[in-house]
Amino acid sequence: MKKIKRVGLVIKPHAPRIEKILAELLHYFEKKGIECLLEEAAAQKLKRGEGIPREKLPGKVELVVVLGGDGTLLSIAHLAAQRDVPVLGVNMGDLGFLTETPLDEMYLTLDTFLGGDEKIVSLRRMLEIKTKDNVYYCLNDVVINKGALARMIQCKIWINEKEVTTFRSDGLIIATPTGSTAYSLAAGGPIIQPYIPAIIIAPICPHTLSFRPMVISDSSMIKIRLLTEGEEVYLTLDGQRGNPLVKNDEVEIKRSDFELRLISSPKRNYFDLLQEKLGWAER
Predict the structure, then answer these.
(1) pTM for this one?
(2) Are 42 and 22 in contact (CB under 8 A)?
(3) Which of 98, 116, 175, 193 has the smallest count of CB within 10 Å of its CB?
(4) How do residues 219-252 score in pLDDT, each as one tens digit?
């Protein structure tokens, strides 16, 4: 394992007791001789200068610790993956499938990781998304959906250059196994263990009841063409980034060469997480 000399700290600014927790975490790393680099919001909380823009932080550290919720982690996950920087998500919210480590297990998890135990590092597959103007990377999902006042949209799908279907719906979700417990789950998609080599295709309120969620190999190349004209349609990545689409725009989606190294608590496994967060199989 690469020696950790610098760690980047990312926060959800309005999380409860965030200043106290952040200060204690700084003290923990300083005692170990590890330099802490603070993103802008964290630096402002502790009145330690301007801080570093979040998007630049993974290029300056060997570890990122996120104090917040899944949204906070998703905002930096694609950047950390491209730099092969491991991420520890500490849950400061309610649900938190990605920020799965509870606050009372944070130091145990850090001690375990810094002690060289790679077994608590989970490799999470990501998606690469190409449009006519950009290339994006995401951890959870790619969503094509209509705006608030738009009517149903129509798209055509190809998988590995074979035309699969033309469909009408409120939108479409393409999700990784990690993203199977996010928007895809709400749309009726399956729960998939993170290490399974798969991609989920899940329609949002399809016009036909026979267009059901589908699981395909993650070696597949998916192409989607928007056929709808004159409506507000958006491409959204991990619920964080994206851009509008217009008629005949195409989006190509495949498994990325990058993987996120996500650190988990040594005290829990994936099924513990499902039971804790969803009450899975309890009733």
Answers:
(1) 0.93
(2) yes
(3) 116
(4) 999 999 999 998 899 999 999 999 999 999 999 9
